[in-house]
Amino acid sequence: VGDANYKIDDKWRMEAKLDKASDRAYMHNYWDKAPNYLTSNASFVYSDNLDYGSIEAYSFQGLRAVDSKKTDIYTLPMMNLHKVFLLDSSKVSFDSNAVNIFRETGVRSNRISAKLEWDKTYYYNYQEIKLLSNIKADLYHFTDKSSADSTSRVSDQKNQVIRAIPTLELS
How far are the Cα atoms of 23, 24, 159 from residue 136, in angstroms, in the given order? Predict the structure, then answer.
């Protein structure tokens, strides 16, 4: 239906796209290549040299015969942050993401992810040795799992899932 892109200043911009259909069957009846869903979104994006972040919202409108307004998916908010700290001969970066996915009927989920990374370069006998270490952690929370349809892959066993993954690379 419409797009918007507005530069607020040198570091901030706003973007939006609206795709909605009042009749779910319209596109399948009158277009040769009709999608199974329409995506609308709005976002505020920050960018400053190596650092960036965003706050976003998404709406997915299903267009298949089995879709209903109650199962349309909304993502609000989705937040991203990437921050870099430059030190002598190393770099530390922090990434985070948080998202809330909901619908009127069906599983709702929340996720928070964070990653801390250290990148260090050593020089020995004219050789460059890079050491990269990081740890990533995720926290998931699910609600309304009892209303999941039969095709859902969400287990009824747990409402929260936590995982952490450390890595170390040498090159």
Answer: 43, 40, 20
The CA-based dihedral angle spanning residues 65, 70, 75, 76, taken in that order and rounded to the nearest 10 degrees:
150
pLDDT tens for each residue of 9-64: 999 999 999 998 888 777 777 777 778 888 999 999 999 999 999 999 999 988 88
Q: What's the Cα-to-Cα distance from 51 to each of 13, 86, 115, 125, 159, rounded to whole Å?
A: 14, 11, 14, 34, 33
CA 50 – CA 92 distance, rounded (Å): 12
Give pTM, 2 decimals: 0.79
CA proximity to 108, closest of 80, 70, 136? 70
DSSP conformation letters of 154-166: --SS-SEEEEEEE
